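Intended use. Records like the one below are meant for learning the mapping from a protein sequence to its folded structure. Do not use them to infer anything beyond what is encoded.
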Amino acid sequence: MSWFNNIEFQNPWFFLLLLIIPFLIWRDYRKRGQNASNISIPHVHLLNGRSTILSTLYKWLPLLRYLGLAAIIVALARPQEVLKEEEVKAEGIDIMLVMDLSSSMLARDFSPDRLSVSKKVAKEFVDKRKYDRIGLAVFAGESFTQCPLTTDHKILKEFLDNLQCGMLEDGTAIGMGLAAAVNRLKESEAESKVVILLTDGVNNAGYIKPIQAAEIAKQIDVKVYTIGVGTMGQAIVPISKQRDGTYRFGRARVEIDEELLEEIATQTQGRYYRATNEELLERIYEEINQLEKTEIEVNVFNRYTEKFRLFLMIGFLLLGFEWLLKYLVLRVIP
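Structure written out for the chain above:
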């Protein structure tokens, strides 16, 4: 199917000649009716009224002729396979996504939960940043880099898909998560370096304070966008973990250290956002996408490969086959 998507026709007006084929079908049908008294048989076996392979071939002879003419007309339209090559010059932006994996991300104020929605929206954001290097860091009570900066967005989205609460010791080490992302960006030579940090809680773990990590980000010109995820008021959240590894849920007040997140964003010339539902989270990522534009110069080169010879050969083969069957095999008398 992809081959046909790359086909263009240099002389498409030749397709008007296809209108001749219905006329030929009508003419042959009319001629056959007028000459009904004449007997044209390919073989004497037809006299006994039984159908044979030869009689079946005789019935399909006109089809070979029509298909052959159609193939020749397609060849006259001059089909060409177009291969497009892109030469891209881009002032790339290096972006580190930082995702909270604490157990509270399983809260059900988002459907089905905060983590699932956060992963989905993050993947949509990645799809819009075609030419940027993007990486992924995660944190809970500790942190690590899940995926280094890469332009292989397919593998990055696979890492996002595989994120689960419980991969790390529970807790909310915002400073550790931010520090892991900043560490990945310190050697970057990109025009712009960005961190998008998403969390739903209050810093309560880790040996690096969030403000300390923000100061390091500021020193190496990393801009941090912070997102607080969670509804206002109360939500159904995990309140304890049972022996079988599952969580017991209950209602609890949503606590997000908005003051801290806003201070991190302000200090690094970024912005703080609060997402109380999936729609707002999508809008936030879209706004960040608009704010962090990549300057791209794309030169497209087209290579054309002629394909009319294939159709011309098919057309003449079909017509030749029809002639051979008619006059040498079936021996039809004109």
